Amino acid sequence: MKVDFLIVGHGIAGISIAEHLEQNNVSFLVINNEVAHSSSKVAAGLYNPITGRKMKKTWLADELFPYLEQFYGDLEKKLKAKFLIEKDIFRSFVSIEEQNEWIGSDLPTENSELNFIKSVATKSKFGEYINDPFGGLLLKHSGFIDLNNLITAHKKYLLGKNQYINKKLVYNELEINSDFISYGEIQSKNIIFCDGALTQNPYFEWVPNAPVKGELLHIKTEAPLPDDVIFNRGIFIVKNSDKDYYRVGATYEWRNLDTEPTEKAKVQLEGKLKELLKTPYKIVDQVAGVRPASKDRRPLIGNHPELKNVFLFNGLGTKGVSLAPYFANNFCLSLLKREKLKEEVDISRYYSLYSS
User: Fold this and answer.
1) Please, which residues have CB within 8 angstroms of residue 200's CB and are 6 or more apart in sequence?
2) CA distance 179 to 188
3) What digits encode the pLDDT tens for the residues 285-318?
4) pLDDT in tens, 192-201
5) Contact 351, 202 (CB under 8 A)
6) Phi, psi of 309 (to 5 degrees)
7) What does 258-323 look like in DSSP terms, one character per residue?
8) Of 48, 62, 231, 269, which is the most exposed, with the fewest CB atoms less than 10 Å away?
9) Is residue 139 a contact partner of residue 118, using CB atoms and an 8 Å limit?
10) How many CA atoms does the CB half-sphere of 197 hold within 13 Å?
11) What pLDDT score was predicted for residue 71?
């Protein structure tokens, strides 16, 4: 088999790259090591325009969010599957001081372009379900991507076109020449690594990545929560799209990078859950995964310093579903049409760390 690009990995990064290559009529093959605890399969897949303790607009939100909504919406139609779950997010205020700060701020009007704030509540809005005595922000252009549905539907599509191989790539079996790359019976002009956080990729081990383990609880509540909103303050509570449980997360761990759930994370999540949620619940499962991230919290994208047909698309971190479509487009345009890759994500920022 001869292709223009060999894509290693089929999480949200690999899917986004594959789709943008196809849009540009470029041939590719995906090789993927299917594991149960990959970050994309475990992640809640939230996309949220207002994040952090200070509730600030996320980096590049005005560019990322219109693009992701269009991308996933078009992909749903193409794959005839449902995975773009649009829901408002409610961020409760933690104090009267925080409430006053928001009321006194210059909030965008309802008619302004790309306004992410749907409404501001100055008193409890969801007090039957959560502790929100000071009100909060109701956000729009938000929701989550059902990553399991997306991965399953996209894999089926690729299998139908003979563009997917379920196999672990063995790095030392790659033969990289200046004009082509060979891997068994596959010959490709280029290779793009979208292979997640825990791989020991010898071509990019010099890149200062900082993988983050995250854990989630699956809970069932005695009474159902509102179906049209995601609660998010300190933790998120989101209904799984086709199951009868809620996902609660997430934790952040930089040292112990296995995929085993821990009692420490359970205690941490339950502590925050009991502060937020009023409705009685029971835990039905706990899952863990490792997110591919970088030390400067920006994606790791670009060309190997010496091997001109070897590329990386990784390090998307906790905002992977928001970042992947936009930067896959930016990356593919830089590869195919020589448009400039955004400096903030280009791994050339770390070339000084590379030694051949």
Assistant:
1) 171
2) 9
3) 999 988 888 888 899 999 999 999 999 999 998 8
4) 999 887 568 9
5) no
6) -115, 20
7) SS---HHHHHHHHHHHHHHB-S-EEEEEEEEEEE--BTTSS-EEEE-SS-TTEEEEE--GGGHHHH
8) 62
9) yes
10) 29
11) 98
Q: With the CA atoms of 272, 278, 282 and 285 taken in that order, what torsion angle do they form, in degrees rounded to the nearest 10?
A: -40
Question: Got the DSSP string for 157-195?
Answer: HHHHTT-EEE----GGG-EE-SS-EEETTEEEEEEEE--
* Consecutive H or E run containing 148: helix 147-160
Confidence of residue 210 (pLDDT cuts 50, 70, 90): confident
Three-class SS state of 218? strand
pLDDT value at position 109? Answer: 46
Token pair, residue 31, equals 């090789």
Amino acid identity, residue 270?
A: E
CA atoms of 243 and 301, how far apart (whole Å)? 35
Dihedral (CA of 330, 333, 339, 340) sign: positive
Number of Cβ within 10 Å of residue 230's Cβ equals 25
Beta bridge partners of 246: 219, 239
Residue 103 has a pLDDT of 75
Question: How are strands ordered across the β-sheet holding 143-145?
Answer: 46-47, 143-145, 84-86
Helix (H, G, I), strand (E, B), or coil: what is residue 88?
strand
Residue length of the chain: 356
For helices 147-160 and 12-23, give the axis angle rounded to 10 degrees: 40
Q: Quick check: helix, strand or coil at residue 42?
A: helix
User: Per residue in 4-17, pLDDT tens?
Assistant: 999 999 999 999 99
216-258 confidence digits (pLDDT tens): 999 999 999 999 999 999 999 999 877 789 999 989 998 888 8
User: Do 28 and 21 form a contact (C-beta atoms < 8 A)?
Assistant: yes
This model's pTM is above 0.85: yes
For residue range 28-82, list pLDDT tens digits in order: 999 999 876 666 667 789 999 988 777 788 999 999 999 999 999 999 999 999 9
Using an 8 Å Cβ cutoff, are 193 and 205 in contact? no
pLDDT mean across residues, the chain: 91
Is the previous residue joined to 250 through a cis bond, with omega within 30 degrees of 0? yes
